[in-house]
Design goal:
Structural class: alpha+beta
CATH architecture: 2-Layer Sandwich
Number of domains: 1
Largest sheet: 3 strands, antiparallel
Strand content: 15-25%
Number of helices: 1
Helix content: 10-25%
């Protein structure tokens, strides 16, 4: 089974997007959206940009860079 974008209720109101791996692990959680239409539009934007997005490392810890 491929990974999934899951739309879930956010507390106290709104919708969040979860990016879930095929193994069921939550890889990312979005901000809160007002409704499912906004969340679905954000999923479309994620799909469009994620494949070609670059990783920009702005961390300051050396352990985050594998040292």
């Amino acid at each position: 089974m491929p990974g999934q974008f899951k739309l879930v209720d956010a507390e106290p109101h709104g919708i969040r997007i979860l990016l879930v791996s095929a193994a069921g692990e939550t890889l990312a959680t979005s901000k809160t959206f007002e409704n499912t239409e906004e969340a679905a539009a954000a999923v479309a934007d994620l799909r469009e940009h994620a494949a070609s997005a670059h990783i920009i490392d702005r961390t300051t810890s050396t352990h985050s860079r594998g040292n």
